[in-house]
Amino acid sequence: MNNHYKTQEQTEQTQPRRHSLTRRGFFQAGAAASASLLIGSAAAAEAGAAEGKISFDSYDVAVIGAGPGGLAAAVAAARNGARVILIERNGYLGGNLASGLPLLGYLDCHGRPVVGGFATEFIDRLTKIGAALGVRRCPHHYSIAVVKPDFCKIVASDLCEETGVEVLLHCYLTAVETREGKITRAIFSCAGNTIEVRARIFIDGTGDGTLGYLGGAACQKGNEEGELQPPSILYTLGGVDKEKFFSWCKENNEVDDDALKYLHESPNWCLVTLGKLFRKLQPKGEWPIAVWALISINRLNDSEICINGPRMLRTDATDPRDLTRAEREGAHQAVAFTEMLKKYVGGFEQAYISHINDTLGIRETRRIVGRKMLRVEEAIAASVPEDTIALAAYFIDIHSSKDFTSKGERIEQAYGIPYLCLVSATYDNLMMVGRCISVDRIVFGSTRVMATCLAGGEAAGVGAALAIKEQCSPCDVDTAAVRRILVKNGGILSMNQTP
Ligand SMILES: Cc1cc2nc3c(=O)[nH]c(=O)nc-3n(C[C@H](O)[C@H](O)[C@H](O)COP(=O)(O)OP(=O)(O)OC[C@H]3O[C@@H](n4cnc5c(N)ncnc54)[C@H](O)[C@@H]3O)c2cc1C
């Protein structure tokens, strides 16, 4: 890990870089862009091609990053009358919605719904086309919604098309311009072209808080030692005999009768198992990595499952050297796990790796400091303040960066995420959604799941659209009005809410 880099991040926590550094960063990026333009123009003259700058102006709301947070924000803002542009570096929309992970966080530990609105609409649309099976209770995660990942991309794209969200794919955010306490422009790169986007409100849905960070907004990253939850690489195995796997688990006491019933009731399952095999094989050096169990997520077809097993410890997912090492390590861990499963676990004899995800799943990087910060004490106390814009009830799930252990803390009752956790403390017109909302590091272990990100994203979109209508800053919006719109759309903002 790069200590110098970490020190910079730590400085940010107390002393956000404001105007001057931000502009310096922007002009440095601009200089680099003009340099490449010069080179580009010589080449273009030769090839007869035109290269340059493409501008997108006069948007009410620009959302950067189209994961669950950004997607929900963009659609909700457009539905509420804003002119919205959604910009994404990938060639598809959805972020981790399209990774093969199940959507968690819909129900609390008692099986009661805590999230509705856009999050429910998303799963309902997938279910209608056979790409999901709704939401059900899960013995490991309170609730589960397994999805067909490619269809998440399609539904996300349809939602944007229907609501008039303008989408730009393949655009990588590289610089941010700020002026007089506001973000004024975001700069992207696409195949050598410089893309500039101007909007009245910017929403950071990058997961990494890249928009806020580049703009010099106050950010936090990890704990005092810079520890961050490790990334994982997800991969898919084909050729799995699932019935044989279940029987093997039962015969080897890896599941009990209740778990077996859960697995047989519906293909909508995720299984955390093989702890006993781990304890047997690990001392003999025959379990490839010290992770104590394997998470397998069913794929909604006959023979595939998705494995969430490999973890790459001590990784700062904002450092390209760490990321590069982790991608390589992850692929090797996937191969080693597969060999072990084929050798020791019934049902995997014919298994093969059919797909390793194109990119790591990043659990934790930066969070942007908001006008409010939700603390773990408030979550444990089930605080639901008046300005709650989403409920959350997933357990606090923190994966160690140093070893293969995880810390979990049960959440008995849902808690509320206040609206001002979505508005930057540094910039009036910067909002954040998904992973980078303003929560402390411990409660982040709970708010990071995708149903919660969808719910918070929807609220940010509604807040941004109201700010445009009222011609005020997002932080001055009437939160009661935001809440009314959310509830009208099926949102759940209190456990006592009458339907
Ligand atoms: C290994 C792992 C397992 C998990 N398991 C589960 C699970 O089972 N269920 C669950 O609900 N949650 C799970 N989570 C958590 C959840 O997936 C994430 O916390 C959630 O997706 C965060 O949503 P987001 O919108 O903030 O970010 P993301 O889903 O990461 O989306 C961010 C988007 O921003 C784009 N972006 C980033 N930087 C730029 C840039 N510079 N320019 C342009 N675009 C950019 C990205 O390409 C991406 O599309 C898991 C996470 C990981 C890593």
Q: How is this structure best described in words?
A:
The protein is 36% helix and 20% strand. It has 14 helices and 20 strands. Strands 1, 2, 5, 6, 7, 8 and 20 form a seven-stranded mixed β-sheet that branches. A five-stranded antiparallel β-sheet has the order 11-12-13-10-14, covered by helices on one side. Strands 3-4 form a two-stranded antiparallel sheet. A hairpin with a 2-residue loop joins strand 7 (182-190) and strand 8. Helix 3 (68-79) packs parallel to helix 13. The longest helix has 29 residues, at 19-47. The radius of gyration is 23 Å and the shape is globular. Bound molecules: flavin-adenine dinucleotide (FAD). Flavin-adenine dinucleotide binds at residues 64-70, 87-90, 95-96, 101-105, 172-173, 205-208, 210, 231-232, 308, 361-363, 434-435, 448-450, 453. Flavin-adenine dinucleotide binds next to helix 3, strand 6 and helix 13.
Ends: how far apart? Answer: 50 Å
Distinct helical segment count:
14
Strand percentage: 15-25%
Instruction: Return the structural class.
Output: alpha+beta
Largest sheet: 7 strands, mixed
Question: What would the keywords be for this entry?
Answer:
499 residues, alpha+beta, 14 helices, 20 strands
